[in-house]
Amino acid sequence: MSGRDLRQCLQNGLLVGDGAMATYLYQQGIPVGICYEELSLTQPDVIRSVHRAYYEAGARLIETNTYGANRERLERYGLAGKVTRINREAVAVARSAVGDDALVVGSIGSILAGRVPHFDTEAYRDMYEEQATALLHAGVDGIVLETFLDLEELLLAVEVIRPLTDRPIIAQLALLEVARTRDAYTLDEAFSHLAKSGVDGVGFNCRLGPTELLRALEQTVIPSDLWISVFPNAGRLGLVDGNYEYQTSPAYFGESALRLREQGVRIIGGCCGTTPAHIRAMAESLRDLPPLPRVNPKNKAEASARRVPIHLRQRTKPTIVERVKREYTVIVELDPPKDLETSSFLEGAARLHTAGAAAITMADNSLATTRMSNMALGAIVKSQLGIDPLVHITCRDRNLIGQQSHVMGLHALGIDQVLVITGDPTRIGDLPGASSIYDVTSFELIRMLKQLNEGISFSGKPLKQRAQFVVGAAFNPHVRHLDAAVRRLEKKVEAGADFIMTQPVYDADGIRQIAEATAHLDIPVFIGIMPLTGYRNALFLHNEVPGIKIPADVLERMKDLKGEEGRKMGVTIAKELLDVAMAHFRGIYLITPFAYWQMTEELTRYVLQAKPNALVQGASGRG
Prior knowledge:
GO terms for molecular function: methylenetetrahydrofolate reductase [NAD(P)H] activity; methyltransferase activity. By secondary structure, the chain is an alpha/beta fold. An 8-stranded parallel beta sheet has the order 1-10-7-6-5-4-3-2. An 8-stranded parallel barrel has the order 12-13-14-15-17-18-19-20, surrounded by 6 helices. Strands 8-9 form a two-stranded antiparallel ribbon. Helix 4 (about 45-55) packs parallel to helix 12 (about 275-285) and helix 23 (about 565-580) runs parallel beside helix 24 (about 595-610).
């Protein structure tokens, strides 16, 4: 540790922090894609020169080059075994670069780091303890927890680290929106929780520039016994002549430092895009100035009273979940066309609706093959035909920005019933060069859709209206170990799934096994039945589609059948399976093969005419 005490320094004055490490290294010619934290071992002189440049510019609070030096991040570079060494050496490098009048604090970044806000609590505890222990043993003057989008992760880090040391801990949030954390806490709530957790200081860093962080401070009540620390970005990242750059000038940062001081900020530094020139400008602006007391906003209650209320759109029809709790309910899948012609699809949808289908469900580019947008067709069948659509949403085709935009569009169209699936990889489809996105898993997307139902966006922003998504989860029972598949399904239920739709089943015993394996779940299960169209179709499913096995007696009955004869036998066999299914499930999911909607039309009528009002004894009350 240095000879200075961080608490004493902040009690008496302001501290100028340093600036960016990663973006500044990039400007100096260090390529992206490498582990910058490892440079403390492999090129210590490079890191030392950065620390020295900030010190000479006027910074007296120096952060170690350890933002991502946790086990999870280092493991990506094959460096998981060097967590302690990298953190220890980073402290030594920083200390050797500056004078005795500078304080060196250990930087610990968010492990979640902008990904979907769901994590293994115990694993994160271990990783935070490992990194913090290494930094503390190396003699840092304090810990800075930085770039946390989610309050709950930040509180977890504090909970782990606070018992390890009595040295100061500063906890900094990164904001997507000026008013809230990503996990939907107001900043007032966030700083109140952090004060109770035992931190010494709170503040912001990264993502936003000086003006937006000033606005956040102006709107926020911060407990009086906490220091305030702010490290803004050099504005927003922009594309200039083909290169991504930060454009905010050092002079502007110098002016902004004075405005931050007026908000009671005691530690003022820079984050992404800032350079020694930015820090020098701030240090010169703040030279010899005393700190100013924090004055919290006084009109918070009045502003809260003016807040726009959250509205909930009224439903006009029962959902499939509401229906299946009291009667047999049929969902029919009819895939969108692969071309621009829609008349046959719309005719089929209308006939299926007349037959009694509670919803027409449409895949989202199934088998990674390009089809017409199911959102567009869903809007057409809803507005023109009065049919309730149930659209599939794949994790494959959209990044998080596109995904939220897509589901907001579904909400605007009144399409509230959805099925979340992972989606087949693009390499198996008709455009194998396309990218598979997979920003989130199906578990995470289910959870995020239910978050929209609470009036909170994916980023944590409060919305003026709650969505009303009824979210389905897919279940593939065609696995070697059914119990493992059910455990995976249970996680989807925990994430918020409202109902389940299974892959097609072709044997009576399989239907009974699924009923038994899912009997403990308290949400409806729609059992999948897809009629065979001929012998070749049966052979294909039996031999080439993973997990699906057609019973020998069914293959024998389908043998050599094709065309109309094959489809007729396929419907007959499907009816026999439905007789078994209806003894165990009220929810029936009919899958139309090759757009032969006449087959599923007949099967829909069979289900609803066989047991139109009464339940077969033993059929699941869950569906």
